[in-house]
């Protein structure tokens, strides 16, 4: 049996398990740009709350041990509530794994980015276009100052002039909307809780769908954009190694994206579709609020328990 004071910090650890089905629903129901922002914000909040909950449980366990209670200037250790020590030990292990995985992931992303920038700097450019002589068809948006569209000569040969412009419009949409920040944030958040890992695929799909719609608007031809993305994906048999945070038109479930482009754009959602879109956003916001409440309540409960153990307030 788990003590009531441990329920609050457990909430942020359980809520992320509801993210995978909600993420899929959000991408299907919300406008792509709205889904991208909603999923990114929710995932980051849940990741931070998950780390805070792990920290709270770890401190609960440590301060229940006499040596650490003495270091914390407690008159007596915190009460060893039922289930406290096993939970604290598990939380400490999970926190250690996060502390090991997060810096490694960040270092890998930064290393991949700098390697790609260095390679791009050695290639000829034409405006924001960086052309790499390679037999492997590939194209992606490389963020930075300035941002560049990296494309191989083989990819250029695989598309017609009109299709190339549609592909470039897609990649420019990634750069102008700074989609790489979303991909980087969700990529790091996935290391904070296993339940957040599927959100990475959902965010990448939302980013690609947002760029698809921007490209269709820029070219004025949804069928041309769909054809360009489909042909580029078919040509990309073995993509070059690209940075994790570099979005590419050929990533994600391309058939699903092409099908969405072949449908007419919705000028506005109404009726049941509107209700479904609102419900998807509300459920994600509810998850974030619930996680924040649990993390906050856990931290407050720990603070009050420490004050009691220190003799600063009655109850000890």
Q: What is the residue-averaged pLDDT?
A: 85
Helix content: 55-70%
Spatial ordering of strands, largest sheet: 1-2-4-3
- The N- and C-terminal alpha carbons lie at a distance of 23 Å
How many domains make up the 3D coordinates? 1
Any overview of this molecule?
Its cofactor is Zn(2+). Belongs to the peptidase M48 family. Pfam families: Peptidase_M48. Keywords: Hydrolase, Membrane, Metal-binding, Metalloprotease, Protease, Transmembrane, Transmembrane helix, Zinc. InterPro entries: Beta-lactam_resp_regulator (IPR052173), Peptidase_M48 (IPR001915). The model has no long low-confidence stretch (mean pLDDT 85). This protein has a four-stranded mixed sheet with strand order 1-2-4-3, with helices on both faces. α7 (161-177) packs across α9 (197-219). The chain has helices spanning 7-14, 19-29, 32-63, 66-71, 84-121, 153-158, 161-177, 179-189, 197-219, 222-235, 254-262, 271-309, and strands at residues 125-126, 129-132, 139-142, 148-152. The chain is mostly helical and 316 residues long. It has one domain. A hairpin with a 5-residue loop joins β3 (139-142) and β4. It is built from twelve helices and four strands.
């Amino acid at each position: 049996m788990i003590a009531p004071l441990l329920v609050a910090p457990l909430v942020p650890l359980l809520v992320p398990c509801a993210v995978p089905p909600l993420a899929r629903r959000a991408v299907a129901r919300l406008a792509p740009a709205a889904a991208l922002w909603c999923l990114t914000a929710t995932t980051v909040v849940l990741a931070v709350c998950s780390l805070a909950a792990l920290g709270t449980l770890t401190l609960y366990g440590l301060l229940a041990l006499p040596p650490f209670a003495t270091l914390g200037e407690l008159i007596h250790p915190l009460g060893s509530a039922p289930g406290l020590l096993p939970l604290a030990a598990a939380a400490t292990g999970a926190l250690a794994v996060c502390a090991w995985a997060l810096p490694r992931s960040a270092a890998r992303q930064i290393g991949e980015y700098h390697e790609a920038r260095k390679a791009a700097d050695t290639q000829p450019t034409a405006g924001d276009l960086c052309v790499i002589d390679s037999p492997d068809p590939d194209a992606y948006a490389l963020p930075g100052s300035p941002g560049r569209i990296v494309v191989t000569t083989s990819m250029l040969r695989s598309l017609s002039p009109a299709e190339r412009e549609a592909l470039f419009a897609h990649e420019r949409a990634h750069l102008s909307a700074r989609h790489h920040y979303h991909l980087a944030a969700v990529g790091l958040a996935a290391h904070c809780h296993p339940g957040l890992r599927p959100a990475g695929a959902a965010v990448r799909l939302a980013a690609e769908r947002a760029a698809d719609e921007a490209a269709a608007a820029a070219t004025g031809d949804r069928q041309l954009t769909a054809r360009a993305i489909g042909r580029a994906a078919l040509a990309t048999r073995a993509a070059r190694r690209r940075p994790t945070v570099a979005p590419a038109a050929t990533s994600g479930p391309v058939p699903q994206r092409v099908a969405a482009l072949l449908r007419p754009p919705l000028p506005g959602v109404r009726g049941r579709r509107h209700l479904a879109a609102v419900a998807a956003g509300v459920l994600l916001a509810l998850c974030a609020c619930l996680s924040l409440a649990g993390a906050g309540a856990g931290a407050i409960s720990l603070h009050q328990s420490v004050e009691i153990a220190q003799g600063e307030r009655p109850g000890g």
